Amino acid sequence: MRIIEERSLKGKAGVKGRVGKIRKIANKKHIKPASATMEIRLLISICNRNVAFSCFDNRRAGRKPAIRHLLEKGFETMKTALIAFFSALLVTFGAAATDGLMKKESPHSVAETADRFEAAARERGMKVFPRFDHAAAATEYERTMPPSVVLSVGNPKYGTQFMLENPVAGIDFPPKAIVYQDSEGKVWIAYNTAEYLYRTIFERHGLSYPEKDIEFYRGVLEDLTSKAVAAD
Question: Taking the model in full, what pTM does it have?
Answer without folding.
Answer: 0.61
